[in-house]
Amino acid sequence: MDEKLEALSENVENAEKEAVSKNFIEQIIDRDIAEGRCRQVVTRFPPEPNGYLHIGHAKSILLNCGLAKKYGGKFNLRFDDTNPTKEKTEFVESIIEDVKWIGGDFEDRLFFASNYFGEMYEGALRLIRKGKAYVCDLSADEIREYRGTLTEPGKNSPYRERSVEENLDLFERMKNGEFPDGSKVLRAKIDMASPNINMRDPVIYRVARLTHHNTGDQWCIYPMYDYAHPIEDAIEGVTHSICTLEFEDHRPLYDWVVRELEYENPPKQIEFAKQYLTNVVTGKRYIKKLVEQGVVDGWDDPRLVTISALRRRGFTPESIRMFMELCGVSKANSSADYAMLEYCIREDLKLKRPRIMAVLDPVKLVITNYPEGKVEYLTAQNNPENKEMGTRLIPFSRELYIEREDFMIDPPKKYFRLYPGNEVRLMNAYFVKCTDYVTDEQGNVTEIRCTYDPETKSDSGFSGRKVKGTIHWVSALHAVQVTARLYENLIDEEKGVYNEEDGSMNLNPNSVTVCDRCCVEPAVQGAKPYASFQFLRNGFFCVDYKDTTDERLVFNRIASLKSSYKPEAK
RNA sequence: UGGGCUAUCGCCAAAUGGUAAGGCACUGGAUUCUGAUUCCAGCAGUUCAAGGUUCGAAUCCUUGUAGCCCAGCCA
After folding, report:
1. Which positions 432-461 on chain A have a beta carbon less than 7 angstroms from any atom of strand B?
2. Could you give the ipTM of this predicted complex?
3. Residues A310, A304: Cα–Cα separation, whole Å
4. Percent of chain A predicted with pLDDT > 70
5. Mind listing the pLDDT tens digit for each residue in A298-317?
6. In sequence order, what are the residues at sequence separation of 6 or more whose Cβ sits closer than 8 angstroms to the Cβ of residue A509?
7. Nearest 5°: CA angle at A80, between A79 and A82?
């Protein structure tokens, strides 16, 4: 009794601790709420539509969305599309799809920074009138020279002291297209001697005649990120603008813009460390190279960690959310083991997916004392750990396929599977004892012969003797032929992702193994793209949407099952 | 060599001056019709280092060390 009470109070304590253990961003928000700086939390995910989202973006989406949910606030999806050179509508579509899939619920709040160009232009005018911005005629090269270096201060631009009137006139003419691309910029007038290079009169508007995916040819001047972003946040009433660590140095400029433009309830920028995964390629340039070289079959190749690739491989949004939850949020650069992600997907699929038998590398097994031509339908649980998933019937007959690995002529110690003279259980069926085997001229096993014991039928209550091994099988006559691909890391884990000498990638030449003779029990028939299963003893597999045809199912292995079996020397 | 940031187990990560949570990985062992799952046990004599303050330091101070980011009219 005392023990129980103790355990109970311990549980309560733990629950409390868990509730108290908040990440550093939640602690900041708590303080902002307690001190009255914030009424309702508003966050946003602000991608530039210039590529596909990957697992790192998933962290940001889930963090922002999760925070809004936790505090009863709002979460926006906003495209940060202020630089038309790199942006495409194609990407806005794929990003929306990925954000929704991963569970980033922005409801009806889909925004575009480009819709705020007018307000940004007005803001620039205000800055000019306040004497806080000026038009500069220096070339890009000259601006760089004037900027100074990390250790030396910069010099003032000769155009820095232009009058408000002249600046107003020039800026309007920039907008009207009177000056060629790159000939003039608008700069914030801050401090050319600042130790923070971002504060050395940063460029806030450039002239560029580009067709924008959203605004077309309406504008020929475009605002820069540092100027635009705080305005976007302020317009949307974002309270906590969460970004990655490399923007820490930009925060003073973010605050400067918000202050000079006199926004009430100014948004606050908070930086966190990116989510890295060990030995995984996330760089756009590198993925592009892999696609171009044909190493992978697209941005959604199952070995990649773009969101579309994870989806194709068979990861679920739940598993990715669990992974992010497990990783936590901090300001320390770190890199999570892929094993953690695998743990999450196994955990998620364990009780949710049917467990069926599939033989990846088949070898024939003949039951010599089983009548020829007889077919028996055996009952199996679809998921023994989740009875609600019901049962199915599996055909059993004289000729079966079993896994080549599950038979050895001359096995080492502690090999529990089939070998001459040994008896094992055929899962969901009978005990079977190896009596003989046939090999070809090269010595490869082509057929295994066994006898079965009808008394040992599964669920018959037989307890006469025990057997060490249980193996899976498929009736030869009824087998569905499919293709299964087994993946290893794309990267050679010994060497790490990048080759330091030439910047190339250290690829693992065996990152994919194709089993094209894979035999599965009839239950797979009719499986649709993205459907997934546990193939007993082999792992979780998902129907590939790209390569599956009406004639043939193609499966990708999502993750293997853990195994403590180590083949040992005799 | 200017500025900003970070450092707690193999990998993540808590701890907010009160005596190092948790998860992944790993290692035993039990149960098992999946060598899976589940269960149980183990896994930081000390928090980058060295000094100091304190009854008490991962937390405060001092001095170092290491790593990451910044010199786009990219985001």
Report:
1. 457-460
2. 0.97
3. 7
4. 96
5. 999 999 999 999 999 999 99
6. none
7. 130
